[in-house]
Specification:
Blueprint (H helix, E strand, L loop, with lengths): L8 E6 L4 H12 L5 E7 L9 H6 L4 E2 L2 H6 L6 E4 L6 H10 L3 E5 L6 H14 L3 E4 L6 H11 L6 E9 L4 H5 L25 H9 L11 E10 L8 E8 L4 E7 L6 E9 L2 E5 L6 E5 L4 E5 L8 H11 L8 H17 L4 E2 L5 E4 L4 E4 L2 H11 L17 E2 L19
Parallel strand pairs: 1-2, 1-4, 2-3, 4-5, 5-6, 7-10, 8-15
Antiparallel strand pairs: 7-11, 8-9, 8-18, 9-10, 11-12, 12-13, 13-14, 16-17
Helix pairs in contact: 4-5, 5-10, 8-10
């Protein structure tokens, strides 16, 4: 049902640096003032944003916290959350409880118990929440997901994806939470390639297999290998194997310490077809067992912030959310399982780690070839007998409801 009373969508922008910078830039440059009104921005360190002066010039107030914003009694139809991972769920819930709809940047949060809290809060207040995995808003991914759901490709057998994106030492120095497992207060962060820069591609493995447009397949078990070259708490490289509740095998390979960028690429195997992207073509191509070929287009073809346009439109004319907490929580559950699988991060041998002085980048000799060969064969590095490789334990996720340990603590006791 259309909400005809809302002509101009009022919004609050939470986080104006990092990815938040691009949200603000899109709002200022690509939205008509007749369509939206930025009521305020929220950022404890706004001066770090290149757009801070422009916000001041436009007389848009900036608050140090979301609580301070709402305490002023200012209305916001939509809250855009682009803050660090460990603030996603608390700020989303706060926005919901203050009457705002929410689009939250990926990932949903750090833990599965947070995801459940978010879903409960959303249902209690009757507002929707979008999670900003942009491929889930892509026409190409949506079309592929529809065909998979219709059974046109047959039963899914194995889906695998790989991505190498180099990072430098400044990437991990840019904030107090980058590469961290917890913050100083003990809040879970679990920052990693799989839960930050490349979370999109892990999520996508589950999302395309969801039974409905707004759901994802659920992981039933995961075995992970977690490695690091950078001097950080968590991992900068990972390979993992997941089985969904329906028995489909998923394989994920990601690194910030390969010698060069590659991907994302993926290869999906079904009973009656294969689907490939990124390695040999920049569009998604399906080849079936009868010689038919279908081009779904590129998941990068849509506007990078199509999700933001859909969120604003969804306030004006509410409709079902295609990537909400239910769809996004499979990635969160998998991340928790990965950390449980390999709680002791494996350091690459010093002899393999090389530093580029002029850029501050680190790369691990032979890692790109090792991960790529494993990707092609559908195996983990430990199964290829690399001397540095160490396999984690298998984690059952079918009744996993609390990180760490899987089981919620007794009432009144926190683990």
């Amino acid at each position: 049902m259309k909400n005809k009373e809302i002509k101009q969508v009022s919004l609050v922008m939470v986080g104006i640096s990092g990815m938040g910078y691009y949200y603000v830039k899109t709002l200022l440059e690509e939205f008509s003032p007749d369509l939206i009104k930025i009521q305020a921005a929220v950022d404890p360190y706004p001066e770090k944003s290149e757009l801070y002066q422009e916000l001041k010039d436009q007389k848009i107030p900036v608050f140090p916290s979301l609580s301070e914003f709402y305490k002023k009694g200012i209305n916001a139809d939509l809250a855009i959350i682009s803050s660090p991972i460990h603030f996603h769920v608390p700020q989303t819930c706060e926005a919901l409880l203050n009457g705002s709809y929410v689009i939250c940047e990926k990932p949903l949060g750090a833990t599965i118990q947070e995801a459940e809290k978010l879903i409960h809060t959303r249902d209690a207040v009757g507002r929707w929440v979008m999670i900003g995995y942009q491929w889930s808003f892509s026409e190409a991914i949506r079309a592929l997901k529809r065909d998979i759901g219709k059974g046109l490709l047959g039963k899914p057998i194995r889906l695998k994806t790989l991505c190498f994106w180099q990072r430098d030492e400044n990437y991990y120095r840019r904030s107090g939470w980058a590469g961290k497992i917890k913050d100083k207060k003990g809040n879970w962060i679990l920052d990693s390639p799989a839960n930050n820069a490349m979370a999109h591609f892990l999520h996508n493995l589950f999302y395309v297999l969801g039974e409905r447009a707004d759901t994802s397949a659920r992981p039933a078990e995961v075995t992970a290998e977690l490695y690091r070259a950078f001097p950080i708490e968590n991992y900068d490289s990972t390979a993992c194997r997941v089985f969904t509740e329906d028995g489909t095998e998923l394989l994920f390979y990601a690194s910030h310490s390969a010698i060069k960028d590659m991907g994302p690429i993926f290869s999906f195997e079904f009973e009656q077809a294969t689907v490939d992207y990124g390695e040999f073509t920049d569009v998604i191509i399906m080849d079936d067992n009868h010689g038919n070929v279908k081009n779904y287009g590129s998941p990068e073809a849509d506007h990078h912030f199509k999700k933001l346009f859909e969120a604003v439109a969804g306030v004006r004319n509410p409709k079902p959310v295609l990537c909400g907490p239910e769809a996004a929580s499979s990635q969160t559950l998998c991340i928790n399982g990965m950390q449980e699988s390999a709680p002791d991060i494996v350091d690459f041998p010093e002899s393999m780690i090389h530093r580029v002085e002029e850029t501050g980048k680190l790369w691990v000799k032979g890692l790109d070839k090792a991960f790529y060969d494993c990707y092609k064969k559908g195996i983990l590095p430990s199964e290829a007998s690399f001397p540095w490789a160490h396999c984690g334990k298998k984690i059952d996720l079918r009744n996993y409801r609390y990180f760490p340990g899987g089981t919620p603590p007794e009432e009144g006791k926190e683990s």
